[in-house]
């Protein structure tokens, strides 16, 4: 049920309302145009959804977030967001447990905020792996709305805001719970995070057993030379049959699936380089996972993640870094 939490010119009172719903944070009010602020809770059940407009230019600085994820979708105004000390280049972003969040918002900004408890995300992972992750998922902060699947997920969040205002949401908590599950599982499946590699290929029970066997083989041998013949042998079918079943049942090819698995492994390694827990170059990481043609690799990577691999490894890097990262696929 929708609930107006605050509306008016008292920024301090608005800040107190935001703190009660989220977590303590620093707030600095800037100079410029002023208008009444508004803070609405659109939905709160397993997840929560809010709409927030400060009405004045503000800079918000949260410490490390506790056990929840914040997904920010701007509705109006061009905001600047930093997660874990790094600027987010995409318009939509996510920050999670243990990550800092800083925002610079103009007076006319209006933001849709999806609030996901860590327990809900852990449950979505456990549904695929059999157990919750040992640590909170660390998502890539930038949501690549250029990816059609992610664009569809973001559209679903906006549709959820409309659903929350409908009589159906008020009269059917179970319908709302199903909508919530679509959002949580979609996020875990689509947005890259540091547990991506732990999501098993066999988490797709609707796929034929031969396809699942081939997918599991790719997961286990992604760092080794792998051919379609190898995948077919693991699947216990002929290469031609495997090709046909992949196209019919998953809409892709065995080679394209292997490439996506390897891209995910590259992505995780680059995230570790970005946070300082690992070292190396984009070319070294790409080669480790079977990509030898660097410019083609960079194109594959940008198509999936919405940015060049060098930007993932060093989010603060400016300019066109493709000359330093020229990776691609040998299969």
Write the layout of secondary structure elements.
Elements: E1 3-8, H1 11-21, E2 25-29, E3 37-44, E4 48-53, E5 58-62, E6 68-76, E7 80-83, E8 86-87, E9 93-95, E10 101-105, E11 110-117, H2 118-129, H3 148-164, H4 167-171, H5 173-190, H6 209-221, H7 228-235, H8 239-250, H9 254-274, H10 282-288, H11 294-305, H12 309-313
Antiparallel strand pairs: 1-3, 2-5, 3-4, 4-11, 5-10, 6-9, 6-11, 7-8, 7-10
Q: What's the short story on this structure?
A:
The chain is of the alpha+beta class. It has twelve helices and eleven strands.
Task: Report on the architecture of this protein.
The protein has 331 residues and is an alpha+beta fold. Strands 1-3-4-11-6-9 form a six-stranded antiparallel sheet, with helices on both faces. A hairpin with a 2-residue loop joins strand 7 and strand 8. The longest helix is centred in the C-terminal third of the chain and has 21 residues. The C terminus is likely disordered.
Query: In percent, how much strand structure appears in the residues?
Result: 15-25%
Helix % is 40-55%
Spatial separation of the terminal alpha carbons: 52 Å
Order of helices and strands: EHEEEEEEEEEEHHHHHHHHHHH
- Main sheet overview: 6 strands, antiparallel
Write out key terms for the chains shown.
331 residues, alpha+beta, six-stranded antiparallel sheet, 12 helices, 11 strands, disordered C terminus
């Amino acid at each position: 049920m929708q609930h107006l939490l605050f509306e008016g010119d008292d920024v301090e009172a608005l800040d107190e309302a935001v703190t009660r719903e989220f977590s303590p944070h620093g707030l600095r009010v800037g100079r410029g145009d002023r208008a009444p602020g508004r803070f609405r809770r659109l939905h709160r059940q397993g997840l929560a959804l809010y709409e927030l407009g400060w009405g004045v230019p503000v800079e918000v600085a949260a410490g490390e977030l506790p056990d929840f994820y914040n997904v920010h979708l701007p509705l109006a105004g061009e905001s600047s967001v930093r997660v874990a000390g790094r600027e987010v280049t995409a318009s939509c972003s996510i920050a999670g447990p243990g990550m800092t969040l800083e925002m610079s918002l103009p007076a006319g900004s209006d933001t849709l905020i999806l609030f996901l408890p860590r327990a809900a995300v852990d449950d979505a992972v456990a549904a695929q792996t059999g157990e919750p992750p040992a640590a909170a998922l660390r998502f890539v902060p930038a949501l690549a709305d250029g990816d059609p699947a992610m664009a569809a997920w973001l559209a679903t969040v906006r549709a959820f805001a409309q659903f929350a205002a409908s009589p159906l949401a008020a009269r059917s908590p179970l319908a709302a719970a199903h909508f919530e599950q679509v959002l949580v599982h979609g996020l875990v499946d689509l947005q890259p995070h540091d547990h991506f590699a732990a999501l098993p290929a066999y988490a797709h029970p609707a796929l034929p057993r031969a396809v699942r066997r081939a997918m599991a083989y790719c997961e286990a041998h992604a760092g080794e030379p792998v051919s379609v013949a190898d995948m077919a042998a693991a699947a216990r079918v002929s290469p031609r049959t495997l090709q046909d079943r992949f196209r019919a049942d998953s809409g892709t090819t065995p080679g394209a699936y292997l490439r996506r698995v390897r891209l995910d492994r590259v992505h995780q390694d680059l995230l570790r380089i970005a946070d300082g827990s690992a070292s190396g170059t984009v070319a070294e990481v790409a080669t480790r996972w079977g990509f030898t043609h660097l410019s083609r690799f960079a194109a594959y990577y940008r198509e999936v993640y919405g940015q060049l691999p060098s930007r993932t490894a060093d989010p603060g890097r400016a300019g066109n870094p493709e000359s330093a990262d020229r990776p691609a696929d040998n299969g």
